[in-house]
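Morning F.,

Quick status update on the modeling queue. The single chain you submitted on Monday has been processed. Sequence for confirmation:
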Amino acid sequence: MWYESSSKYKNEFSEEKLRHIAIIMDGNRRWANKKGKTLVLGHKEGFKAAKKAVKFSIMSGFKILTLYAFSSENRERSAFEIKSLIKLFFFALDSEINNFNKYNIRLKIIGDIKYFNAKLQKRILQVEQMTIHNNGLILNIAINYGGRWDIVQSLKKIVNKVENGLLKIDQIKENTISEHLSTGELLPVDLVIRTGGEKRMSNFLLWEIAYSELYFTDILWPDFNHNSFQDAVNSFLSRERRFGGLKKI
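Structure tokens below.
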């Protein structure tokens, strides 16, 4: 079964401390090369791992799961690989819509979707609308997304409001920028997980993760499972978050 209610992975403090997890899903290509498989198969296995992460998030009581699926820099990859990724994403939308509604998942897409063809853009908007009233896990997928792009588009919205007299310059605060980002309506990111061994953010949620906890693992994304996720959660729960303040004595 795609999802079963279970307390096995329930985290005692998830409601209080850990609400929004963001994952840089890195390692599909290296997993495929290591296994002697095609890149397409590597991405398909990555899709399976994403489903496991969604299941774990539901069972753990998390509010938001953000997955970095396709960065704006990924457009530099081969035409064949990009076409395969778009085809897989279209398949994911069609195959999972019933599960989204069955398990009360709201799908939200962030990123510049104008890069994709009209058919995929339309399908994205349709699935978002079909799940908009679901009030369980928010599944936030970043596609053709870049943190710098998001900050720029936030500033453009703010400038437009200033030019139209809807906002004054001295009214612009940090939260003004936050509210105009693609993630403006979401809770802050508590934990960022990156698989695949690299230790960088790769232009992901640059504004939002200023005080997020970071967790890096050498595990390639297709091999990331419930136990791997639990290790990341345990690491997070063992830390004291100070948000720039002093350590509690």
